[in-house]
Write a structure and sequence with these properties.
The protein is built from no helices and 5 strands. It is an all-beta fold. The protein has a 5-stranded antiparallel sheet with strand order 1-2-5-4-3, with no helix packed on it. Strand 4 and strand 5 form a beta hairpin.
Length: 67
């Protein structure tokens, strides 16, 4: 299935930098990913799902990932 992969760094209010990796996909494509800890391979890199959020009307889902 297709995902939009977004890797970005952000500066937190407490003065440290954090890295977020978010994959956005059609909810129907990721319905089987219901548990944190699921491993996804995107472009030959393995990521662990650490968060799952439905967006707006539920047609799309954001997956928080970590390498």
């Amino acid at each position: 299935f297709l995902v939009l992969l977004d890797k970005f760094h952000s500066r937190m209010d407490i003065g440290i930098e954090g890295r977020s990796i978010i994959a956005t996909a059609k909810t129907e494509d990721v319905e089987d990913i219901v548990n944190h800890g699921t491993i996804l391979t995107i472009e030959n890199t393995a990521y662990e799902v650490v968060g799952i959020r439905l967006l707006d009307d539920g047609n799309f889902t954001e997956l928080d990932l970590k390498e």
